[in-house]
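Internal tracking record. Fields below are filled automatically when a chain is submitted to the structure queue. Please do not edit lines marked as system-generated. If the sequence contains nonstandard residues, flag them in the REMARKS field before resubmitting.
Queue: standard
Priority: normal
Entity type: single polypeptide chain
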Amino acid sequence: MNDLTSKKGFICDMDGVIYHGNHVLPGALAFVNWLKQEDKGFIFLTNSSERSPKELQQKLNRLGIEVDESHFHTSALATASFLASQCPNGSVYVIGETGLTKALYDAGFSMNDVNPDYVVVGETRSYSFEKIERAVRLVLDGAKLIGTNPDLTGPTEGGIVPATKALIAPIELATRRLAYFIGKPNPLMMRHAVKKLGTKTEETAIIGDRMDTDIIAGIESELDTVLVLSGVSSRETVKRFPYQPHYILDGVGNIVPKT
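SYSTEM-GENERATED OUTPUT FOLLOWS
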């Protein structure tokens, strides 16, 4: 654990690591306080596209964890940045929440449900057959299909719920077009996080609850990986993967050195 606690930078997932829904997870507050006390670089890197960094900051504040807005980066921001580099001032049809639409607006995109450059799908609770039907027509007419992240499911207080890859699947199947996913484990998102931290790869660790996004993203980016069992993964599911994390912990609180 000394190798882990001596790292200068930490990339930390949120859902299933810091909280479930509106419930802060055990040890999360102590972990964040330790990061601040030890002057560690840290960034919360979430595949969720629903909320903006400001909203995520406010959520953590409500849970008793105070951090600056600059410590957050989302798949919505990563998606907006990537699309802006590909098609400046383009247009999009969005199936998603305000965090995604705001990120796209801020990146110079306009909303378009007639002939957009892209159909972009993220997590949402306002999912409907009508939106799927329109998305299918737009993709068949030439719009490119983008997913904010490749997560099939996500953890909540009530259990596992469908995430972006599950929501976008009907559009892929109906159009026979595969979506391009921006969030973890896409190296685009990981490179941005490491660059924002200003640390070297050997000085940085990634903490997450998913083997198929967080851990593989860390391995492919040459970071030390920490799997916490407070979210999606369990010790049994870990055995199914051909790669393994450097550390398996019950929760982020286990990282804090005992005094």
